[in-house]
């Protein structure tokens, strides 16, 4: 939850600058808003990566075979359907 706190703090720190920019047309506040939004974007991407890695690590641990267990064979790759078997799109009505 520490990441969520960081995210909330960043958003709340931008509140005054949003107000100054939109209500008082303060250009410098707009620059600070843009800078803060860029930080938010970077932070969000880092959090997304962290969540994905944590999820994948947990899924990998759940799928790991028990000690001494036999490994499962890899599934066979699916072959693409022949071009002739594909259906053509219906004709457009005029």
What this model shows, in words?
The protein has 94 residues and is mainly alpha-helical. It has a domain of 51 residues. 63% of the residues lie in helices and 0% in strands. The radius of gyration is 26 Å and the shape is flat.
What would the keywords be for this entry?
94 residues; mainly alpha; flat; Hc1; Histone H1
Task: Give the structure's gist in a few sentences.
Belongs to the histone H1/H5 family. HCT subfamily. The protein is mainly alpha-helical and 94 residues long. It has three helices and no strands.
The poorly predicted ranges are: none
Characterize the overall form: flat
For the record, give the distance between the C-alpha atoms at the N and C termini, rounded to a whole number: 58 Å
The description of the largest β-sheet is: none
Which range best describes the helical content: under 10%, 10-25%, 25-40%, 40-55%, 55-70% or over 70%? Answer: 55-70%
**Mean pLDDT over all positions:** 83
Structural Rg: 26 Å
Biased composition (Low complexity): 61-88
Region (Disordered): 61-94
Organism: Hymenobacter armeniacus
Family: Belongs to the histone H1/H5 family. HCT subfamily.
């Amino acid at each position: 939850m520490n990441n969520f706190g960081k995210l909330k703090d960043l958003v709340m720190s931008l509140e005054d600058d949003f107000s100054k920019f939109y209500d008082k047309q303060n250009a410098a506040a707009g620059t600070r808003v843009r800078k803060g939004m860029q930080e938010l974007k970077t932070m969000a991407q880092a959090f997304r990566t962290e969540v994905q890695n944590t999820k994948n690590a947990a899924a990998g641990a759940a799928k790991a075979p028990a000690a001494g267990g036999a490994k499962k064979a890899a599934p066979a790759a699916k072959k693409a359907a022949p071009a002739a078997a594909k259906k053509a799109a219906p004709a457009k009505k005029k």
